[in-house]
Give the backbone structure.
Amino acid sequence: MSNYEYIISSLPFLSADYKYREGEGFKDVLEEIRRDLSPSDSQTVDFLLEGFSDKLDADFYARALVHKNAYIREYFRFDLNLRNAKVRYLNGRLGRDSGTDVIDGKGDLWDEGLDIDLYRFQGGEFEEAAAVDAALSRLDLLDRERELDDIQWAKADTLSHFHYFDLTAVLCYLTKLHIVDRWLSLDPESGRERFRKLVEEVRGTFRGVEYKA
């Protein structure tokens, strides 16, 4: 059985300036978390990590949308919408048909034996559509990526609301840490700022209150 309280309370383990300790990184944090997860929860974490790939296909989303874990189902429904919004934006910029390379559940792209609501496979309701469109319209590439990551961060928060010491809280943390890790490699200052935010949120959660800057 997973020791969620210990895991969550131990997450902000990095140095005071919110950088990884020397020689450490995302994988090291992940391994510390795994030590206190049950085999079943560790498998769910593996699925989340698979979803961080830049090369996801219809088969992955088909599996995600019927996953037993609610955070996985809803986060990757959102992620599918986000991916397709990016593809449609690029199609427009390149003068291609708007449906080119969009993952919509049509054709033989996934295991047709899965019981999937086609509406959900096509994204369902996309509450963040306007915010994503606004972010994609940014001319500066870094500004665009920051805004899109902010939307992802907010979605993780929404899906983990009122989840303090459970697997959902762990999945949310790893989603955010993945964003932080990416920015540390792209833009160290932005990455540090995002990590500060993550540490503060976790500390606030452990006290049982929402952290306010």
Notes: The chain is about 60% helix and 0% strand. The first helix runs from residue 4 to 10.
